[in-house]
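Ticket #4471: structure output looks truncated?

Reporter: J.K.
Steps to reproduce: submitted the chain below (199 residues) through the standard prediction queue, then opened the result file.
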Amino acid sequence: MTEAVTARRSRITPEREAELYEAVLDLLREVGYDALTMDAVAARTRSSKATLYRQWGGKAELVVKAIRHGKPDRIGEIDTGTLRGDLHALVLLEDDCTIEQNSALMRGVAMAMHNNPDLREAFRAQLVEPEMSGFHQVIQRAIDRGEVRPDCPALDFLLHMMVGGFATRALLDDQPPTRAFLTSYIDAVVLPALGVTTS
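Returned output as attached by the reporter:
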């Protein structure tokens, strides 16, 4: 990063940045990604549109950074001593209310990604890849402990299984995912697929 960019970015305090991100998420929940504009963000946050573009480059980057800011960034640090404990601890990082809010938000963003390659690219680089990295650390420890075979075919689909349970709860059951649902899903689906006993 150049010194000029660093100097520009340093003008926004962490507190102000958090306020901006919260306003972006509020707007995203209210109007959705496609109707969200940098003008609306500037008005809501009493910022100049030029500052927003200078700081984040565009709407996709700003939206993804806002989503990332509110997510726990400690997946790779979770180490309870068992894979089951680690996956349950991951679920417990957020309460049911936050899980429900994030679920609705992510459904809206997922729909928008189909028509917005810039959003899809930012989402993958800043959310999907870091989370996959954290999951790989958790799984590697489980392999090192001998809980999961390194050649288990389900390993390639762990993140798919986790996201699938989260996303399809609303679609199939018309209910938000909850901690209780997700921990039951982990025990009934994810761990058996990895060859881990839950008894």
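Triage note (M.O.): checked the attachment and the full token line is present. The chain is about 70% helix and 0% strand.
Status: closed, working as intended.
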